[in-house]
Fold this protein.
Amino acid sequence: MNEPSGRRERKKAATRQKIADTALRLFLERGYDAVGIRDVAAEADVAVTTVFSHFASKEALVFEQDEDFEQRLARAVTGRAPHEPLIPALRREIHALVRHCTADSAAPVWHMIDASPALREYEESMRLRHAESLATALAADPGLPQTTTACRTIARFVIDAYSLAREAADPEAAVDEIFRMIEAAWEVACLAAQVKANTD
């Protein structure tokens, strides 16, 4: 008899979380470079192939919420209420992400990331991917008649806001300060688009 898909998905998610939690614990206990995928698999009591079925690389184990963050940013655009302004919706999401990443419990993880060239490089590629995903969501919104360049630029600003605020002495205030600039830039882009539409 086939296992119900809901239960199968829950088991899959539980296995993924167990692997990620185990990997992070080992990385923090022994050091990122001292732990291999085989160590993680053995400690989590799964096959190496199971680890790779959930995570494409060792670096991905550290950023296990990467996909969730990417989807949340896109949903801040696509899931906002009709006529809800774009920039405040994005600011709320970045505030939530920054709060998550600046919690006391996250500090050891960021120390580990900062100390590892491989993890820093992975984080940079992840940020670029998030920016492209957000730009795609912006460009697809019929209520935001913007050029591809404008969408990509604002998306980069939003992703950079997260990175800059995470490193600031007062992350919450930094998000607000940066988003005031983003909002000003967005208003200029909207005005330029409106003028172009009226003159075409």
In short: The two ends are 63 Å apart (CA to CA).
